[in-house]
Amino acid sequence: xxxxxxxxxxxxxxxxxxxxxxxxxxxxxxxxxxxxxxxxxxxxxxxxxxxxxxxxxxxxxxxxxxxxxxxxxxxxxxxxxxxxxxxxxxxxxxxxxxxxxxxxxxxxxxxxxxxxxxxxxxxxxxxxxxxxxxxxxxxxxxxxxxxxxxxxxxxxxxxxxxxxxxxxxxxxxxxxxxxxxxxxxxxxxxxxxxxxxxxxxxxxxxxxxxxxxxxxxxxxxx
Length: 222
What we know:
Layout: H1 5-14, H2 48-61, H3 77-81, H4 84-90, E1 97-100, E2 106-107, E3 113-114, E4 125-128, E5 138-141, E6 146-153, H5 168-171, H6 180-187, E7 203-209, E8 215-220
Parallel strand pairs: 6-7
Antiparallel strand pairs: 1-4, 2-3, 4-6, 5-6, 7-8
Helix pairs in contact: 2-4
């Protein structure tokens, strides 16, 4: 027996099966049916322990160049595209941001070295990066050749300096004061070339976004 749409819906309703079963018929080959996006699971964000495991595994799997292969922020786009684990770590922070992960971060220039004493620092810092148009969290003043960028701690509850006040929530747990240069360099990553800028000589101020939403000066460039 053949049914039209009206008959089919009626039969479903009569039989008590219509919890809500919409009948969708494709009437036009050019019509696209877009399902409503699924609700975001409350546990979708990776946990601190999960991310720590990702980082440890990545470091163990990339020992090349005396450890410089750990540094996901120095990888070229083609390298990232071929490295799903690097993509996973880079996705820890949002749009126009980069994660600085002390366990695998490096400082370049003079004598290259990895983040000093990373165990004393937070697991991940998120740094806002160059964009073509100034945003709420990243700005460039061409007249003064000066960058202003925001930074925040990815897992504030596990931050070893969470009980400190203001900027000390980062600055007191750097492991070594020179490590701040890695955050500064990330705020002008690749000298802004990806955003069509030249930040090679720019000075930088970093502001810390605190868990309560406040914004405090963390580092002032010269």
